[in-house]
Amino acid sequence: MRPIELRFEVLSLAVINEHRDLEPWYREFNDRAWGPARVCAAVVAQHGAAALARLYPALGRRIHDQADKDFDTVIPAALAEAGLPVELADAAHRSDFDQEMRASTARAQQLVGEDLGTPTIAVDDVAFFGPVLTSIPRGEEALRVFDGVRLLAGCRAFSELKRARAEDLSFA
């Protein structure tokens, strides 16, 4: 509908929260998140950011929409869907790409500060955590959301918006 340059980068909640005191359920979530984040970092290192832009939604559909938390099956299936070598799934259980994952996460923290999560976005050289959406807007609605984010990014005083989640997540 109009050209927008979009680039995905790895931001790891596991890295952000690794030394924080967390509730047990959230600690388990973060500990398990190392695997998919490591695979994403491996994909960027070996195939570039465009490949991550294909992999990320394939992972999201399986993990969130289909509620499949078996990462050992989710990751290879998502890699195959994204047209990437399925062997990259092995990176989930290795630390080979942790340095790249930590560096990418650190870049996001430098832009936003310590109080960040996913998604973190940068628009017009301003970065912030959010917007958190329960589904993917399409067409004119997507443009309105993007324009709203750009408008907020242009206001130096903007800090935060938040409300309770009204729907389950959907990547459809």
From TrEMBL:
Pfam families documented for this protein: Rv2466c-like
List the InterPro entries hit by this protein, alphabetically. Rv2466c-like, Thioredoxin-like_sf
Q: Which SUPFAM superfamilies would you find in this protein's record? A: Thioredoxin-like
- Name of the protein in question: DSBA-like thioredoxin domain-containing protein
Organism's domain of life?
Bacteria
Organism of derivation? Micromonospora avicenniae
